[in-house]
Write a structure and sequence with these properties.
heterodimer; A: Immunoglobulin-like; 4-stranded antiparallel sheet; B: mainly beta; Immunoglobulin-like; 0% helix
Chain lengths: 113, 112
């Protein structure tokens, strides 16, 4: 079975500073990886995804994640955060042929003015 | 474009009462549908998924059931709620040929 580990439950960071949210997944022959963002009392929004091809994937709001097969990681990064980035971020994986998304426990990003 | 609707947004129910949460998807046909539960500090857990009308798969034994009476409708039910059923319930959909899933706004259920 797939598993996803988000090592940090909370990450405080000052506005305009860089941030990295860490995610490690259990190894599988073929795996798809995702980052979702959740604002308070709302559903999850897909931030970015890795399906195949280029190992660096980007979102429209400045986040990027890099698929690292040797380290089984898919860390999320942003070079300069904004107040509006304050939210909870979930890393998820899906094995080939599986219907199930396996989620990490989430990382709460707090951007400090 | 596709949209997913989930209601109600919040619900407070007494222990032992029944439950019905509804989810509908618009703008697509034959979607895969999912119910997840999010408990504090525990991430999201897949409860049920469906690949077609009347086809329901359960991922974990529990006090809840799911039904799919129409192609784009997915219902989560319980005959008698338990305190442990409290949580944030999220419906999601995906295209059969695509990998990513899209989520509704969720229902905050509090069993008292």
């Amino acid at each position: 079975a797939q598993s996803v580990t988000q090592l940090d439950s909370q990450v405080p960071v000052f506005e305009e500073a860089p941030v990295e949210l860490r995610c490690n997944y259990s190894s599988s022959v073929s795996v798809y990886l995702f980052w979702y963002v959740q604002y308070p009392n709302q559903g999850l929004q897909l931030l970015l995804k890795y399906l195949s091809g280029s190992t660096l994937v980007e979102s429209i709001n400045g986040f990027e994640a890099e698929f690292n097969k040797s380290q089984t990681s898919f860390h999320l990064r942003k070079p300069s955060v904004h107040i509006s980035d304050t939210a909870e971020y979930f890393c998820a994986s899906r094995g080939a042929g599986s219907y199930q998304l396996t989620f990490g426990k989430g990382t709460k990003l707090s951007v400090i003015p | 474009s596709q949209t997913i609707h989930q209601w109600p947004a919040t619900l407070v129910q007494p222990v032992g009462s029944p439950l019905s949460l509804e989810c509908t998807v618009e703008g697509t046909s034959n979607p895969n549908l999912y119910w997840y539960r999010q408990a504090a500090g525990r991430g999201l857990q897949l409860l049920f998924y469906s690949v077609g009308i009347g086809q329901i798969s359960s991922e974990v034994p529990q006090n809840l059931s799911a039904s799919r009476p129409q192609d784009r409708q997915f219902i989560l039910s319980s005959k008698k709620l338990l305190l442990s059923d409290s949580g944030f319930y999220l419906c999601a959909w995906s295209r059969p040929t695509r990998i990513e899933a899209f989520f509704g706004q969720g229902t905050r259920l509090t069993v008292v």
